[in-house]
Structures are given as structure tokens and as C-alpha cells.
UniProtKB/TrEMBL annotation:
Glycosyl transferase family domain location: 220-391
Gene3D superfamilies: Biosynthetic peptidoglycan transglycosylase-like, DD-peptidase/beta-lactamase superfamily
Family membership: In the C-terminal section; belongs to the transpeptidase family. In the N-terminal section; belongs to the glycosyltransferase 51 family.
Catalytic reactions on record: Preferential cleavage: (Ac)2-L-Lys-D-Ala-|-D-Ala. Also transpeptidation of peptidyl-alanyl moieties that are N-acyl substituents of D-alanine; [GlcNAc-(1->4)-Mur2Ac(oyl-L-Ala-gamma-D-Glu-L-Lys-D-Ala-D-Ala)](n)-di-trans,octa-cis-undecaprenyl diphosphate + beta-D-GlcNAc-(1->4)-Mur2Ac(oyl-L-Ala-gamma-D-Glu-L-Lys-D-Ala-D-Ala)-di-trans,octa-cis-undecaprenyl diphosphate = [GlcNAc-(1->4)-Mur2Ac(oyl-L-Ala-gamma-D-Glu-L-Lys-D-Ala-D-Ala)](n+1)-di-trans,octa-cis-undecaprenyl diphosphate + di-trans,octa-cis-undecaprenyl diphosphate + H(+)
Top-level division of the source organism's lineage: Bacteria
GO MF terms, alphabetically ordered: penicillin binding; peptidoglycan glycosyltransferase activity; serine-type D-Ala-D-Ala carboxypeptidase activity
Localisation per UniProt entry: Cell membrane
Family matches, as SUPFAM superfamilies: beta-lactamase/transpeptidase-like, Lysozyme-like
UniProt-recorded name of the protein: Uncharacterized protein
Amino acid sequence: MIAAFDMVKRIMLKVNSRSLISSIIKILRILPFLLIRFLSGLINGLFSILILLNYLFLFDSLIYILTPLKNFLLFLGEKSLDYQFPEINIRNITGKVKEYFLKILYSNVTIPKINVSKLIHTLANKFKNPQKVLQEIIIIDSEEALATAVAPIVIKKINFFSYIKTLLFFTSGTVFSIVFFAIPLSVFVFYESLPDPYQLFQRIPNQPTKIYDRNDKLLYEIFVDKKYEPVALEKIPNIVKNSTIAVEDSEFYLHNGIRPLSILRAAKATVLEDNLQGASTITQQLVKNLLLTPERTIVRKIKEAMIALKVEQSFSKDQILELYLNNISYGGTTWGVQSASKKYFGKNVWELDLSEASLLAGLPTAPTYYSPLNGDLELTKSRQKLVLDRMVELGYVATEEADAAYKKEINIIPQVDYIRAPHFVMYVRDELERVYGKNIVDKGGLTVKTTLDLDFHEKVQQIVSEEVIKNAYLNISNGAAIVLDPRTGEILAYVGSRDYYFDKFGSFDVLTAYRQPGSSIKPVTYALALKNGYTALSTIKDEKTIYKNQWETYVPVNYDGRYHGTVTVRQALANSYNIPAVKLVSKLGADNMVELGRDMGLTTWQKDSSYGISVTLGGKEVRLLDLANVYATLSRYGVYKNTTPFISVKDSKGIEILEKDKEKRVLSEEISFLITNILSDYKARIPAFGINNFLSITGHTVAVKTGTTDNKKDNLTLGYTPSYVVATWVGNNDNTPMNKNLASGLSGAAPMWNRIMSLTLQGKPSEVFMKPDIVTLIYYKRCNISEYFIKGSSIPSMTCQSERKKSSKT
């Protein structure tokens, strides 16, 4: 382009129109520069607006646009110098000199002592070879040195008009960009960044999970931060709707989402009084609560108004009112008019009267301040009076009705942390989270019907507390109990400690804690023996036995410290002799016993772990909850089922989501029957427990087993019928030993078990354990005893007990 300009210039000179030609060429040369100035101003304006938008967090990604624009401005600056001064190759100028040139180009700010623009003009006009002079200048790397070097050739007179001209072009570009680009872009970006009003219906609000007992008594509600219970608008009475509209937004059915006059009043207060006010309609409040953050800023208020307009265009007034009444705060964690109705009055919203409805309507403005729970009912009543007066003014109610409602006494139900059967509830919560996840449990609005019988459970809780207090002289500080229905695996009562609210350790759940079971684990040992060919009449020598390995010597002893000679399997199990049990596990393998115990319900036992022979005496910890299920497996004739606290679990839409567990046979019915028959043999256990003990229930056949650990740190009793399993424990949470005078079957867990089992069986018919067809009963006339055998098994010849004792002595 410059070459073309020169050619035109030479041609025009030949026709002696030098003055005219010079003017035209000057204009043509300066025109590209002025255009670039305008574009620079245009982009500079956009640049400034983008920075502002980014600052307001309206469009975070704009930051990625800023750097390329800045680079483009620099490019335009270089092009501008090229067009002004073709004699100088600006690309050869580097370092600070180039930066100063470009700086002057943008801002018209003069470097101290020198005007760079004038310098370039001087170089171009005074020297035949300005490029050479410029090369000498650009090696100087400071403002002061540059100014000193060129000061003699600087024309100090400044053409003021040229600066005004440049400034006007630059400013016009900036204004143009702001008016036609920046403002429309800002509005567009702002509008598009607003939340979609349809999110109001797509939003899934946090709903509490409700836990009930088997008789539909509420045990507990689980929620995160808001207690939310939505209700359809048609179920909300007019007095509730009208009282809310009267006090919150009397023109609700007339406006389009905002009230301009109210907004102007609020703006005046904000500007003149430095007091940011509300002026929010019901629609705006809904938007603020569900779609926006709660900060009080002008930007948020603008967003609130714009979204409110969009909401009004998208939904009906009734839809908006329903959403509002279900999502407004009535104090604390209570959100929605249905939750508020239940919290304050203990009833559904459709059961409210005018007095109650007007009281609730006055709360959302300042729930804590006007709450009837804050100790100042005068504030609550004054707010209620305002609501009723507004209702009269708007014609919703007559004056007489309002006066009667105001005079009615406020009856607020007692406010308590509502939790019944707390140990059970916490166990249920853990199980729900394990299966469905914490997020669903906290926010998903599950309806959980549990297996617990609350009335029965509370009676069991009382027995546990009384027995622990009664046996405090034995250094017993805590107790626990569980009652199962073995036919279904359902938990009927669940007592994790003497008192959940006991300040020292009450909340600790013993039922899920790891404790040693003592001899109560022996039914697993003898079930393994029967699986491996032993019979109830098989004999084992109860004598001193020494087990040695490279690390230690182990000598098991009996609970009574005596040896009993040759004993049958029935006698050994019924009287809980230790040495025969250790002999069996030593012969059959501890790992095999662990595998069977796990199959029967001991979920914490690992098949791949190494266990010693002391496992048969309770050397490996278990959960009492699991141990109770082992006995339930025996009650079910060898069929394993998971213990369950659930009857039903429904999602927020009422759809059943509970999956029933499958059952599995882990032990034959004949072996289960034999173990049960031994454990229910009252006469067989007399040698160890005597006649007067707590292991029998008058009028009922009950299989029962006790367990006491070394140093008497744990004492257990577990027993069952075909319909119920009862397991009890006493001890100390810190493993402190109980008193040495504690006698298994006579004190400690046994009396507690007896009371709970008696309560459970009260009024129930007596049940017997039916003998499987594969089991036969053989009578030994010479010894006058009978014994059960599995058909086809090896039936030993009978040696009477008197003969065995005589043989043992010799």
C-alpha cells in the first residue's frame, strides 16, 4: 500500500499539483492509522467490559478471552506505527524502546523529557537515513538515557490538535463498543447465567427418612439440615393459603412476579439510607430459597427479580404457591407448612384452625424472633394479630372470626429430641446406609417399617436396667439383650445397654461390640462333632490333658475345677465341661469349627484366619447380635437367615425397595434337633447347675446355654424356642472383671434372661421341637434311659453312668 502511495505522489508532482497531491497523500497515509486507532478503542472498550463481567463472576470463562485480546491490541499498535512511518521497520525495534513507543501509541502519555511520537517525526523528516539513527538509539535501555540522547533533535512544540484528534477517534471507538457490543453482551451473558425456573420442579428436595416400629409408631426421623414434608396444594386449607398471602404478598394473584413500587421504595432505602431492604413477592422469596444463594447484594436482588419474571411466565399461581408453602422456613430445621404443623401442633396441615394457621403464617418473616418456642409468647401473639388484621382488611375473614382466633389459647406440643429405642434406631440407620448409601438415607425420604415391637422392647429395656442395678454388688455396670423371631430373622427387641442416655457409656452398643462368648459358643463345637460321626451317647474322657507346642503349654480346666471322668456328648454339652470340648476341636480341627460357626451366623469369623483350640471356649470374639443368630439357626433346624430389622423400606414415591434375603441350609435338621434336644434337657444339666436355677421356664420347653469368660469379664445366657430367641449379656464396657462370686446360671445374665424369656412367652402356648423322621429314639432298659440317634448312624452299646464312674475310678 505504501508503494502505491509513493507512485501516486510522483505522478501528481508531474502535473504541478504539488500542494493538492501532498494533502491527498497525507490523508491517505493517515487514514489507516485512524482506522486502527478506532479499532483499538473499540477493542479496548470490550476489554474493559470483559474485565468488569469477570469481576462480577457473571461469566468466569471470560478470563480466557482477555489475553488474546491484549495480544491483538499489541499487534494493532505495531501496524499503526508501520502505517505512520514506513521509513522505519518497527519490527527491528526491541526492548524497552518498543514498549515505550507502544505505550505512547495507546495512551498519548509522554515519556519524561521526550515525546516519542515527535521523535519519530523528527527522525523521518530531518535525516535521510532515519533507520540508521534509530538503530543507534534503540541500544539505549532506559528512559533517561533515551531522552538525553535525542534531546537536541526533539521539537518541543506539541501539536495539541493532533492529540485531541487521536483522543476523539480512540474515545469514539470505546463508546461505540460499549453501546453496541458491551452492554448487549453484558445483558445477554447476565440473563443466560440465571438458573432455569424449571429447576424448581426438577429439584429433588431433601426429605427425611422416617423409621417406624412394626405397629407404625414413629421411632425417629433422619434428616440433614431441613425437615421437609411436601403436601399437595389441594390438601392445604384456604385459611392457611389466605393467611400467608395476607401477610407476605397481598397482591400475589395480581402481579407478574415483582412489585415495581416496592422495588423503588427498597432502592430508595438502599441508596439514601444505606439499608438493603427486601420488597420480595412470594415468587421472589421462592426463587431466593430454592435457586439462589442467601447473600444480600444488589446483584442477587437483580437476579431474583429477573428469575421471578421467568417463573411467573412458566408456571401458574397455584403451582408457585404450592412450592412456596412447601419450601419456606418456619424455624430451625422445619421447612414447609406440613412439617411446621406437625412440629408446633402435632397435626396435619389440613387439620389446622384459623388460630393455628395465622400463627404459622406469621413465622417465616423472622422464624426465630416470632417462634412460640423462644419464651416470649407476646411477640408471637403480636405477629399473629397482624396476620389476622390483614386477613380482615382483605376480606378473607370476618372481624369476629379474627378476634376469636386471637383469643384462643396457644397449645404448642412439647418439643423433644424424638428418638425411641435409640440403640436400635442407630443400628437401623447403619444398615440403611450400608445398603442404600448415606446420601439416600439422609435426603431420600425413605419410609422404613422395622421389625421392632416398641411396647415389648421398652419392657425388655426396663428389665435390663433393673437387673444391672440389682447386680451392682457383683461389679456389674452394664447389660444388653436382644429378642429375635427365628422363623423370620426379625428383631423384636434390641437393648444395646442399660440406658442409652447414661452419661458414661450408655450410647455404646454392646450388641454390635466384639466380646468373648465363653462357653456359649460350644453348640457349634458339638454340631461339628455330630457332623463327623459322634452321637449324643458317644463318650469322651474328662481328665487332665496337656497340649504343648513350641511356644507354650496349654492345660484346659473345667468351670468347677474338677474332672468328671468318662462323659457322654450329651453330658459334656449340657454341663458345659471344657476339657471334652477342647478334645473335640483338637481332633476335628479349629478351622473346621470356625467355618461352621461362620456358616451358622458368626459373620466376623474369617475362614482364612488361624484359630487355636481355645476357640471352643470362647477365645475368639463375636458380636452378641451374631451369636443370637447362631441359636436362631439351630431353632430353624439348621437353616441360616440374616438377622433383619426391616419389614418394609419404601422410597419417597412409596415404591418398595427392600430386597428379601435368601435362606440357606448350613446344618442338617437332624443334627440341629439333637443339639437343641441336649440344650433343652433340664435333667442333663443338673450336675453343673443344680435344680434351682434360672435356665428353665415353667410350662415351656426352652433350649438354653450359658457362657462366662476368663476372669469373668463377660457373662452370657442364650436360649430359644421354635418362635423366639433371647440373648442376654452383663459385664463392664472397659473389660473390668466382675465379682468372683458371680455364678453362671444363678446370677448375672441368667436371671435377666429368665425374666425376658418369661415376658416373651407370657400368654403363649407351649411349643415343642418336633423330631425329624430321620431321628429315632432308642430306650436302654438296663440303664433306664433313652437317647436320640440319627437313623443309619453307628449306635454304640450302652454303658450305664454308674459303670462308667466305677471304670473311671479303677
